[in-house]
């Protein structure tokens, strides 16, 4: 049962990722990214990271994907003879297919060799079926307090910086 | 229980697809999609190894910070893309080749 769920969600994530790679319509690619995030969140849950799976869905799907779709819509060229009865296609051309294939396939072959020949000896005991929320909360507030605060400051800086950059888009002309 | 190599294989495949997307797409947002995919693939590795650390959950905490940094990165990148689009009227990275107009 667990194996079936694992391979099913892995296949979902990988097929959606290939769809992003080959799709010419950017909106379809963004929604395929949604499917990939969903599959990855399911893999997180199967690996015992329930809090991380939920936060993956909330942050990526609820935040980042909406932001990306807004970005696609804001940077779209408006054509004069726009037929309103047809839906918009945002065509993206693909360049350097050979280099993309070579880099991707080459890196995958290298990683495949490493993973197949590796022999991990795990020291700790495997996670039991309990919730990880309590452990994550305690760890965040005790031993990982400084990275937690830095992450908060980073988010504030990103918020202010993004708002400042996106505002006043054509200051001179 | 799923062996850890299978998690690593899925993560490696997703990472390589993300890398190929970054190389081939002729659109800033398409490149961002690829980067998000790569960050997610790395998180799978962290969580898969964090399975063997149930007391301290270091891998999952690191993955959480990766998600936070990814969120910050995508907001700033989108703001920069909007500025570049406002100036150059294009979203193709190959056409943005001059430093100053």
Automatic annotation (TrEMBL), chain A:
Catalytic reactions on record: a quinone + NADH + 5 H(+)(in) = a quinol + NAD(+) + 4 H(+)(out)
Keywords noted in UniProt: Cell membrane, Membrane, NAD, Quinone, Transmembrane, Transmembrane helix
Transmembrane segments: 6-22, 29-51, 57-76, 97-116, 145-167
Protein family: Belongs to the complex I subunit 6 family.
Source organism superkingdom: Bacteria
Main subcellular location of this protein, as a coarse class: membrane
Compartments in which it is found: Cell membrane
Gene Ontology molecular function terms on file: NADH dehydrogenase (ubiquinone) activity; quinone binding
An example Gene Ontology CC term for this record: plasma membrane
Name the UniProt record assigns to this protein: NADH-quinone oxidoreductase subunit J
Membrane topology: Multi-pass membrane protein
Functional summary from the UniProt entry: NDH-1 shuttles electrons from NADH, via FMN and iron-sulfur (Fe-S) centers, to quinones in the respiratory chain. Couples the redox reaction to proton translocation (for every two electrons transferred, four hydrogen ions are translocated across the cytoplasmic membrane), and thus conserves the redox energy in a proton gradient.
Top EC group: translocase
UniProt-listed Enzyme Commission number(s): 7.1.1.-
From TrEMBL, chain B:
Gene3D superfamilies cross-referenced by the UniProt entry: 1.10.287.3510
Regions that span the bilayer: 6-24, 31-49, 61-82
Quaternary structure and partners: NDH-1 is composed of 14 different subunits. Subunits NuoA, H, J, K, L, M, N constitute the membrane sector of the complex.
Single GO biological process annotation from the record: ATP synthesis coupled electron transport
Gene name tied to this protein: nuoK
Enzyme class: translocase
Family, similarity comment: Belongs to the complex I subunit 4L family.
GO CC term (a single one): plasma membrane
PANTHER family, per the entry: NADH-UBIQUINONE OXIDOREDUCTASE CHAIN 4L, NADH-UBIQUINONE OXIDOREDUCTASE SUBUNIT ND4L
Keywords: Cell membrane, Membrane, NAD, Oxidoreductase, Quinone, Translocase, Transmembrane, Transmembrane helix, Transport
Protein name: NADH-quinone oxidoreductase subunit K
Entry EC number(s): 7.1.1.-
